[in-house]
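Reading group handout, session on sequence-to-structure problems. Before we discuss, look at one worked example. The prompt was deliberately terse, the way you'd type it at a terminal:

> structure SAM-dependent methyltransferase

The input record follows.
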Amino acid sequence: MTTAPLSPAAPVLRTAYQQSVADYWNNEKDPVNLSLGDVDGLYHHHYGLGDYDPSVLEGPEDTRDARIIEELHRLESAQADTLLDHLGPIAPEHRLLDAGCGRGGSSIMANARFGCQVDGVSISQAQVDFANGQAHKRGVDDKVRYHFRNMLDTGFPTGAFQGIWNNESTMYVDLFQLFSEHARQLAFGGRYVVITGCYNDVTGGRSKAVSRIDEHYTCNIHPRSAYFKAMAANGLVPINVVDLTSATIPYWELRAQSSLATGVEDPFLTAYREGSFHYLLIAADRV
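And the output record:
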């Protein structure tokens, strides 16, 4: 696999905020991410979709938490599958970019499905090293590679990718800068897909629950309207918009009943139920 080098004049971490985000994820060892990934070696950094099997809450108490963890992981892998479903026709000769790749689970799933080259980028060196280790263990490191790069300026060639996605990572960056870079990297007619939480413009700014989510993850959740404004400004035309809010609530209800609960479950459930927060999938074509 060949990759374009980063220019020495373009450091990966450009601002104090980016450094703080990198520090957060370099030091993060949350069991809610690691224990779920231990189920089958696919380590995600996102939430889940679909109804959970209520039987996991029944049965022997000593295995209850293990059952819940397996079910949470099934739901988060289903979320990644939903995102990949919207990338359109991808052939083995194509190339994909996982922007804000976390520990890399979605990239490995994409390679397994499409057989193509997948690059992931993160500003967390710890995540990049972990993800590359997982690709090596699976024997796919000839096709799946993770890079310590800034998704606002990756250094990859113009028009190199048929598909790009962000899975719950856009709340860390300026959307106009991000979509400008994605539009540069996408081939004409290529597809961009994002799954994200965004606050509801109709309710008039961030609710208390949404502000608590921001604080928990050191992020800056955008309003729903900002995604469409930034896409329109950068030649990205939505082809599918899917409201996943109701489909993600069961994941949070189950997680709240597990040993992995972090305390952020209540703000998520409150925000979703009161309508101040939406969980959206947007797929857009590069024109």
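Points for discussion. First: The longest helix spans residues 64-85. Second: The chain has one domain: 20-286.
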